[in-house]
Amino acid sequence: MSIDSVLIVGGGAAGLAAVETLRSEGYAGALTLVCDEPELPYDRPPLSKQVLTGAWAPERTRFREAAHYAELGVRLVRGRAGALDVDGRTVYLSDGYPLRFDGLIIATGARPRRLPAGHDLAGVHVLRDHPDVAGLRADFARGGRVVIVGGGFLGMEVAAAARGLGLEVTVVEPLEQPMVRQVGPMVGAEVARLHREHGVDLRLGVGVTELRGDGDVLTAVALTDGSAVPADCAVVAIGAVPATDWLDGSGLAIGDGVECDQFCRAAPGVYAAGDVASWVNPRYQRRMRIEHRMNATEQGSAAAANLLNGDVQPFAPLPYFWSDQYTVKIQVHGHRSADAEATIEEGGPADPLPEAAAWVESPGTVRDEWRLIF
Ligand SMILES: Cc1cc2nc3c(=O)[nH]c(=O)nc-3n(C[C@H](O)[C@H](O)[C@H](O)COP(=O)(O)OP(=O)(O)OC[C@H]3O[C@@H](n4cnc5c(N)ncnc54)[C@H](O)[C@@H]3O)c2cc1C
Question: How many angstroms separate the alpha carbon of residue 53 from the centre of ligand 1?
């Protein structure tokens, strides 16, 4: 099948990698990138680090300037994809506008998971995009008590940033240690120690029953042990769900994300990459979906190359992610199975521990690196 027009839906790291790979691999046909956000595509990891602490202006997260897209001959379309007709080779924007394609790459990422109730209270936040970080920074600037719901890597990064800004921080995590799914209980215990030594009130093995308000303003977070933590601000960091709503009725297989084969292919000429994609990783002989920054770039490139060159390269990465908390950089290579345990291969808790504020003064300063391999 000759490919004369490629459409990429989603202007995150995966979408950008797909665009750049298509051009670097010699594709000279029409190339359209649909972006739902009212600004040029930008990167997300700094949002819970340098942007949240105020060390970087949000604009610094922009991947590329407008001229770069023009040079590549990429048509940027601002809009939200609303439906996909696979047989008709057309994506419809939410206002009904049709975009035809020969090849399609779905890169719509994920959206923060929400608690069943209480999200409308003033003071309750999620963290995914620029408006989210602006709202959170405004609340942090008012000072007060912050409760973080969820002790995954995002919640723990927000906890570190908030402590660095001098806020009172409680983290609520139902599992036995923070970040336990990513690093296992032994290293999770080190993460817990790191945060407690920086003054975080870490409530482990306990969940949230309710976000309580006075009128429409958050006042407390109620926990499953019957206690309630007074709160001026709450950050709900309980994971993300793949952004597949617009694909309902398309006929694509949707499970935990867009289900693809080992080439990241969901249907003939239709590929998916990044947080939204679930694919069979030949390295592990199993289906996975990875919400990490490096995977988004690698999978965006792989999907583009396979679309262009005809499924030449199974996508078999060794997953990798990092997390910055205070002056510690945690790096994890590999995929942790449920019972796998790791020790810290390199580094260890800094001694003496740096002041919490030091990280905010010189963000990105790594005093200590923990490297884990699964
Ligand atoms: C605050 C934060 C900090 C992080 N820190 C780290 C870290 O330290 N280390 C690490 O490894 N990973 C980190 N991650 C994860 C990493 O950033 C993501 O895995 C990566 O951004 C995923 O890229 P993506 O292109 O798949 O999706 P996204 O970046 O989510 O991009 C998807 C784009 O598609 C758009 N979109 C959605 N639906 C539609 C639609 N219907 N039509 C058109 N456009 C649509 C969205 O608006 C978005 O712009 C972090 C994530 C966040 C949110």
Answer: 20
Q: Amino acid letter at 188? A: G
Please identify which residue in the block is written with the tokens 């790191």.
Answer: 194
Instruction: Retrieve residue 271's tokens.
Output: 């590929």
Q: Which amino acid is located at 23 in the chain?
A: R
CA–centroid distance, 81 to ligand 1, in Å, is 16
CB of 93 sitting under 6 A from ligand 1: no
Residue 351 burial by Cβ neighbours in a 10 Å radius (0-12, 13-18, 19+): exposed
Compute the distance from residue 297 Cα to the ligand 1 centre, in Å. Answer: 11
Q: Is the CB of 319 under 6 A from ligand 1?
A: no
pTM: 0.94
Those residues whose C-beta lies under 8 Å from the C-beta of residue 308, and which sit 6 or more positions away, are 3, 22, 25, 26, 27, 103
Q: Tell how strand 277-281 and strand 110-112 pair up.
A: unpaired
Query: What is the number of the ligand 1 atom nearest to the C-alpha of 294?
Result: 11
Q: Determine the Cα–Cα distance for residues 326 and 97; give it in Å rounded to an integer.
A: 46
pLDDT in tens, 247-285: 999 999 999 999 999 999 999 999 999 999 999 999 999
36 lines ligand 1 (CB under 6 A): yes
